[in-house]
Design a protein that fits this description.
Blueprint: E1 4-7, H1 11-23, E2 27-30, E3 45-48, H2 57-62, H3 74-77, H4 80-89, E4 97-100, H5 106-113, E5 117-121, E6 131-134, E7 150-154, E8 160-168, E9 174-176, E10 180-185, E11 188-194, H6 200-216, E12 220-229, E13 232-239, H7 249-252, H8 257-265, E14 279-285, E15 299-303, E16 313-320, H9 324-333, H10 342-353
Parallel strand pairs: 1-2, 1-3
Antiparallel strand pairs: 4-7, 5-6, 5-7, 8-9, 8-10, 8-12, 10-11, 11-14, 12-13, 14-16, 15-16
Helix pairs in contact: 1-8, 9-10
The structure holds adenosine-5'-triphosphate and magnesium ion.
Length: 356
């Protein structure tokens, strides 16, 4: 089997490498400024764990190589403007939005989208970075250089946020996980819950993501984040990679999202993963490791070995058990060993589990 090279060296890359080990697939993580000599481009399968990369000798070389899976897709999906246009062309519902190219547009923007909007940089934002909450009295807080390089969206009310993670193989076959329920705070994912019961949203969401993946002739795992509103689902954004909201699959699915991605890009069988149990994922953000967590046998710790900084994702915890009641009790028992803000996330997750 060809070796896999992953652009980027972050935690998603490491988790792809771990998944490769059990399949006997060698996964190398590559720095963006790596020496080209060390990368046998034509004899490898290249994928990415990051969505936006600078123009380096390496990225220029691989961006046109057929070994770099989906190389034609990244320019479309990593620019919020072309991503939104694609969704609109496919008649898939999104939040009302506009391209923001100059200050003169503001009166029209507020009249079309309402008085509370979110400006999002076209490239490179993540975890809520590269976003500005704007109303008519603070448009001057936006950097001048942003115009032409951002879109603006209506700030909507939604009842829930969900994501669908799916994969498409080279032969066009697809596989999906159950919808994941997500809780964000300040633009950052805090916790996810995956339940076993599939509802009607599942087939609607699978249809939407299938349309997108087939249109792009996409290979690998793709993630679709949606807002749930009274009219149905609005697509928030797409990621052409494995996703934080799919981390629960490492411990509660027969095939994790990382393995599923490797299978798809290596043209290996792509059956629908079997989900064994409901699961909860808690992101560990800006906190030091606490070995007392390991006293709980249902807890799977995934620690990224990164320097702990405020607002930095440094690990995650997966909790799985066949009983949602037990899971809920375990979540409650973690309150004393997690920072006080986790009380909110735990409350939200316990509430979701009660719907199982
Ligand atoms: P990610 O970390 O998933 O890459 P991101 O930084 O790319 O996130 P978004 O997913 O666009 O950014 O936004 C982050 C969160 O901010 C969303 O999950 C949602 O909670 C909130 N949000 C984004 N857009 C809107 C909107 N138009 N109206 C209301 N809330 C929004
Ligand atoms: Mg997002």
């Amino acid at each position: 089997m060809k070796p896999v090279y992953v652009l980027g060296t972050g935690q998603l890359g490491h988790m792809l490498r771990q998944a490769g080990e059990s399949l006997g697939v060698t996964v190398h993580l590559i720095e963006l400024d790596s020496n080209l000599q060390t990368l046998p481009v034509d004899k490898s399968v290249i994928t990415t764990e990051i969505e936006f990369w600078p123009n380096t000798v390496l990225t220029r070389k691989i961006s046109k190589s057929s070994s770099f899976i989906n190389h034609n897709v990244f320019p479309i999906l990593t620019d919020r403007l072309s991503q939104k246009k694609l969704l609109n062309d496919l008649n898939l519902a999104t939040v009302p939005w506009a391209f923001l190219s100059c200050k003169m547009q503001w009166p029209q923007v507020f009249s079309n989208l309402g008085q509370r909007v979110i400006v999002k940089s076209r490239h490179g934002g993540y975890d809520g970075r590269g976003q500005w909450h704007v109303s008519p009295d603070n448009t001057n807080t936006l950097p001048d250089t942003l115009y032409g390089h951002c879109i603006v969206e209506k700030n909507i009310h939604f009842s829930n946020e969900i994501s669908l993670i799916g994969a498409r193989g080279r032969n066009g076959a697809t596989a999906f996980y159950p919808l994941t329920h997500n809780f964000h705070e300040n633009g950052m994912l805090r916790t996810s819950v995956a339940l076993l019961n599939k509802n009607t949203q599942q087939s609607i969401a699978e249809h939407m993501l299938s349309v997108i993946m087939h249109k792009l002739n996409y290979i690998g795992v793709m993630t679709m984040e949606c807002f749930v509103v009274s009219d149905g689902l609005l697509i928030n954004e797409l990621s052409a990679r494995v996703h934080n909201s799919g981390h629960w699959t490492q411990n509660a699915a027969s095939i994790s999202q990382f393995e599923l991605h490797l299978r798809a890009i290596l043209n290996l069988p792509l059956p629908t993963p079997v989900i064994h149990m409901p699961a909860v994922m808690l992101n560990l953000i800006g906190i030091k490791p606490h070995m007392a967590w390991l006293s709980e046998p249902r807890l799977h710790l995934h620690w990224y070995n990164k320097i702990v900084r405020d607002n930095r994702k440094v690990g995650h915890i997966n909790l799985v058990d066949t009983s949602p009641i037990v899971l809920s009790r375990v979540l409650h028992s973690l309150l004393p060993v997690l920072p006080v803000e986790y009380a909110n996330y735990i409350l939200w997750a316990r509430n979701k589990l009660s719907q199982q």
